[in-house]
Hints:
A: 15 helices; disordered N terminus; B: 364 residues; 11 strands; disordered C terminus
Amino acid sequence: MKKKLHVHALYLRRTILLRLILVPPSSFRSTNSRAPSGTLTNPGSRLLEFKECELFTASLRSSDHAFTPQISRRLVLTMSQVDKLKQGQFTNPETPGYVGFANLPNQVHRKSVKKGFEFTLMVVGESGLGKSTLINSLFLTDLYPERIIPGAAEKIERTVQIEASTVEIEERGVKLRLTVVDTPGYGDAINSQDCFSTIISYIDDQFERYLHDESGLNRRHIVDNRVHCCFYFISPLGHGLKPLDVQFMKAIHNKVNVVPVIAKADTLTLRERERLKRRILDEIDEHGIKIYHLPDAESDEDEDFKEQTRILKASIPFAVVGSNQQIEAKGKKVRGRLYPWGVVEVENPEHNDFLKLRTMLITHMQDLQEVTQDLHYENFRSERLKRGGRKGPEPSEEMDKDIILQEKEAELRRMQEMIAKMQAQMQKQGDGDGDGLHA
Amino acid sequence: MRRQKYMTDAVPPEVRPKPAVPAKPPHVAPPPIPSHPAPTLSGASVRGSGGSTLLGYIGIDTIIEQMRKKTMKTGFDFNIMVVGQSGLGKSTLVNTLFKSQVSRKNSDWGREEKIPKTVEIKSVSHVIEEGGVKMKLTITDTPGFGDQINNDNCWEPISKFVNEQYEKYLKEEVNIARKKRIPDTRVHCCLYFIAPTGHSLRPLDIEFMKHLSRSVNLIPVIAKSDTLTPEEKSEFKQRVRKELEVCGIEVYPQKEFDDDIEDKSDNDKIREVMPFAVVGSDKEYQVNSKRVLGRKTAWGIVEVENLNHCEFSLLRDFIIRSHLQDLKEVTHNIHYETYRAKRLNDNGGLHPISTAADTQESNL
Lengths: 439, 364
């Protein structure tokens, strides 16, 4: 408990401090081109701006651990200057008193763009709910090119498997390494009692691996394969959550951010959809399932963004339809599904919540990673370390580190001895040969 | 073949009370005998298919009229069972089939039903009348089927129920002093609802159908088929048909019970379209100045009785308008007889009222 609070406080502090650096773009917009940071005044979409801001937080935290404390110290000293900056008094570089650290976000931005981002998304749901189609529609790619759908007879023998596919997407110079973890076989068997133990052990494995890397000596290239978000697909055919849904979500809500999604929403009329959403939310409350909650918009954000967040929050769980087929409707080409009675457009907000889901995923990709790091991972870590001493086969991290240190020291000593020996040898030879070797 | 069956049935006294037989379409009547009642006394000799030559009109075919009158008086009963996971629209479909609120849940969507922990069997009976013909319709619902996490053997309560109905009928039939008309609670038709995943059947579907296709007339339907586009629908159906074939599951109409060529061709046509992809609805909307049953969505109205949209009309015509009687007959002559033979063989003879019969509810 204490640990969690501590972490949360740290998180808050960092965010507040960084918010002060990242002067709200509105004040920058009012300036002309001579403003210090070129990219932030780009009158591009609001979405992109916010995304970039969020990305700064990520890079500041994850890489260069040494970087952050410097900023906080410096900020504490120059709080008054930041205040004045907020009031727009130092927007002109030539103004006396302008220090220039407002350029910081730019540097961070450049570094993080070079480094690229990673995101791991897990999709869980019964087969036939359109998970693969939705992923392909969301990221406009084809993650499952040669897919064989097994028949029922084969499904009887299968257990749940984990399949991870990685794809590198690049947009406007920003690289994203997206890993989608699929779970075929979930909920297929007649007896689904065990179908989520495989999934939970996978999630735990990724945490374990990250913990191990983080506690290791060389932390330069830690690969973050932890599951940042889990889309749980709910069938639109039922009257709410099934017992399997409830059990699964309760088992993983403390390990990963759960986003419930109503699949194949074109089965439902508008009224049925509203009813189902309400029903699902009621059941989630009833069973105490902690789904991922979008963070509230800060009070200093502009109205559009606040409104957008409000709409997103009100639409959970999202009722989506996925499709990558181009259909001709009303004279224009749209992605959708063609029925004899009409065309369901994937990107039409009146037909389904696909756009909302995509917006949420993209604007909150950063937040999802943060919550995974600050909440779920820290929980796992504290549990793990507490257990570490009691667990037989796996030694705790401290013991591991000590052992490694000792080994390294032994190696160092050996190497020093060897060097000493070589030096002695060279000296002997050097007396004979003269100088030519650097001693 | 069929004519002979009827001729023997029509001859009184009837040893075994059969389910009342409504009139069969005229093609059953043997071709040579003229269907009009006016006698042809001009000496035209007509050849009956039995081989004997009839020298004039006798009036044997009026038996059909007599049977029809009798049926209208006694009415008949039909028992249908619906099986499938919760939320597949079973109750709505039954209401749509019989155009009245006959199913167990006859309030509309706003019901707050909890999923029962085990499979329950709930029957509801209604008497509906049309054109002077009374029908006692019994609908058996199976809430809880396939909804648990562990669905092992969830078909057993259903199998047991079906066999219990056969047992009841058998006991009554074997009685020394038995009723004139044995109440028929046997399940004549079982509609199995397949979820429209678009991929294939689920293991649960296969297991259920394997266990029950031998003891009851099983008709699979694809529920809520407005999820599927026409291409997806036909692909899905093909896959389902292939899987049923591979697993050796015989759904109604079974190929082995086709009597003659005409039957076979009729049934083959049906078999090509099965499983029927249906949509149920009890709400009416205005489409092209007509009131139709349908579902209204933001992108169009799905019409239940439009053949381009779904195959509900085909299902309704199949079950009610053309094969209702056949369903009952196959249940009585084949499934029930199979059960009876097995029971009598097990018991080693006929016991009018035997308590052993109750305990012999073996896995049939």
